Amino acid sequence: MGSTSFSFLLAVLSLCSSVTSQSVAQNCLNAQIRNNLQDADGDNIINNNNNNLNNDNNNNGNDNNGNENQINQQRAEDVTIAAFESICRNYENYITCFEGRLPLSNQPADRFLQLVFTRGNMEVAYQGLCTLDLQELRNVIRCVLSTPEVRRCYNNFNRGVNQVVNLINQNQLPAVTLQELACNVSVGRYRCETAVYAQCDPAAGRIMRDFFYAGVTNDCREDTGVTSRYTAKFGGTAQIVGSGLLLVGCFILCLMSSYQTNG
Q1: pTM of this prediction exceeds 0.90
Q2: Where is the signal peptide (predicted)?
Q3: Is residue 153 over pLDDT 60?
């Protein structure tokens, strides 16, 4: 990956880290991207895009502001796709990081994730995205990064997470009830977020909907009425709910915010 784009990605990761207080999810995402984004193919893709933008900039010197916005937008799109490609190159390793570190953490965000993470469902979600829709995601990534309305979804989600964590601390509800509550909070965010994406581009809404809903189990899908093409094709597990996908959405939100600030 080009040094400029890689530096931009690391800056976004630092921003996300400050928001999530170095949760296990963030640490695993950081490690995956740092380990996998500097391969030769990634370098060629990013450098070619940057070279094209630099050529455009040289040919249109009187439109500096427009070119700067174009460069920032292209960089954000490149970095987001590179992050997904990084995970897709070795999502088993990414999931293993969650599986090993999550039970050991006392961070509030991780305590919520402990209720909603299962390896099998996360594998189905990434298998579906990486084998069926990654190329199409490249075509709609601009839509995903240009929907500031998703902040409302995250605000509501964060309130739900805090309520569930408070209930965990009270230690009065059985685990199955807490898992069901976590399912409802997660699916509520996914419904809100994918509806926003669908308004921008129906394909973006469909891809992210299939991705997110593959991360929940049959019980959660049946209780909430959601479906996923990925689960229909690759299967799923029978536990209450399973999702390691929450942090991916947060990463998109952080990157979107950085792009809009710079652009």
Answers
A1: no
A2: 1-21
A3: yes
